[in-house]
Amino acid sequence: MSDKVDLEVDKGCQTPFIQTAYRTVKTTISCNKRNSRVMFFCKEKDSICEDILSTKSSLKSNGSFTLTETSSSFNMSISNVSSQHAGVYWCGVETDKGYQAALRKIQLMVEDTFKIFTKSPTVGENLPYWCKYPKSSDEKTKFICKGEDPSICKQIVSTTQSNNNAGKFSMMDDKEKRNLTITVRNVTTEDSGTYWCGAESNDPKQSNPFFHKLVMTVVPAKKTPTPPTFPVSSTQSTPTTTASAGRHGGPEGIITVTVCVSVVVVLLLLFVLILILIYKRRSKNKRNAAAAAQHIKEEYIYEEIQEHPHHPDSGNAPNTIYATANSPTNPSASLHYSTVNFTNCSDKAGAETLLTKPSSSACEYSTVKNSQSQTSSTVNQPSSEDPLYSTVNKSREQ
């Protein structure tokens, strides 16, 4: 629990001060030191001031409050400011007789009207950015400062400096548009941090107003990978170098692995291509062999010739006679093969041929003619007394 303190206002107390703090941002209240070993801060509540921190105690922090000292002042910082921190604070000293005397009154106001921007430039780049300021700051000196706490941040450049366009930071004030242009040249990693655009207060009883916050994070430049080097003196040293680079994560090891993987992929592609070519060639050979076999098969076709006796009561069963049809001497003529059936009727459709038997055991020759080509066949005729008639049926044409 905080202690309640009854204050007596010192006749030589410091001027009351109005300090503006910003939500979620750090702020610091400062007081000048006196010839006293005990100093304190308290917050006014009704007619009593509740003690927050004192140099008499070994405790230097209390929640979001932290007490610090310098050779000429003692300060109380408030982190992560919220609206609950708004109010009246007093700083004072404790006399040797145990009395507490107030030295300064601080009115703390909390606002959240400033704008926040973030930038991530690369090392070596020039970073330009802009700050808009309100009309109330038209005639005030504008400045840039760096630090998490704007109430105590250190100024870098201002509009009143004669060389505000030279050096690492430059500032241009466009008063018609109420716009500040700030340029940070050749940024480095040390330039990372929080920057504030503010204006100097013309009233010593009030703190400086701020209207812009920039959070800069400088990114290191990307390194260009160097090509890998392969030793020539020994062939066994290359794997050692590659393994070492891989263990240490160096760019040479990464590039070596990439090259090896690329070579393996190319070899696999070539192997697949060769397999495809071999497969196509074998398929083509099979098709050619099949076509040749079909052609040979078509050249030699045997026909079946059935003979039926002229007399139906002879009692002899039909005899099957096989004949070989030889291709004609004319190459352009196509081959036609048919089945010749010897029947006892002469009025069947087809081509009719009269076979005359000179003797019972002699061979009969017949010629079957059609409109396109001539086909010859040898027929072995069994013994018969009368001439036989046969009908030749043409099966197909080529």
Overview of the molecule:
Helices cover 15% and strands 38% of the residues. It has four domains: 4-111, Sandwich (Immunoglobulin-like), CATH 2.60.40.10; 115-216, Sandwich (Immunoglobulin-like); 223-265, no CATH class; 303-394, no CATH class. β8 and β9 form a beta hairpin. It is built from two helices and 26 strands. By secondary structure, the chain is an alpha+beta fold. It has helices at 237-248, 251-299, and strands at residues 4-5, 8-9, 17-22, 27-32, 38-45, 48-54, 61-62, 65-69, 73-78, 87-94, 100-111, 115-119, 127-132, 142-146, 154-158, 169-174, 179-184, 193-199, 210-216, 303-307, 319-323, 338-343, 351-355, 364-369, 374-379, 388-394. α1 (237-248) packs across α2 (251-299). The strands form six sheets. Strands 1, 2, 3, 5, 6, 10 and 11 form a seven-stranded mixed β-sheet that branches. One of its GO terms (cellular component) is plasma membrane. It holds the Pfam family V-set. Its main location: membrane.
Protein traits:
4 domains; 15% helix; transmembrane helix; elongated; transmembrane; Immunoglobulin-like; alpha+beta; 398 residues; 5-stranded mixed sheet; single chain; transmembrane signaling receptor activity; 7-stranded mixed sheet; Ig-like_fold; 2 helices
Q: How do the strands and helices of this protein lay out in sequence?
A:
Elements (H helix, E strand, L loop, with lengths): L3 E2 L2 E2 L7 E6 L4 E6 L5 E8 L2 E7 L6 E2 L2 E5 L3 E6 L8 E8 L5 E12 L3 E5 L7 E6 L9 E5 L7 E5 L10 E6 L4 E6 L8 E7 L10 E7 L20 H12 L2 H49 L3 E5 L11 E5 L14 E6 L7 E5 L8 E6 L4 E6 L8 E7 L4
Parallel strand pairs: 2-11, 3-11, 12-19, 20-22
Antiparallel strand pairs: 1-6, 4-9, 5-6, 5-10, 7-8, 8-9, 10-11, 13-17, 14-15, 14-18, 16-17, 18-19, 20-21, 22-26, 23-26, 24-25
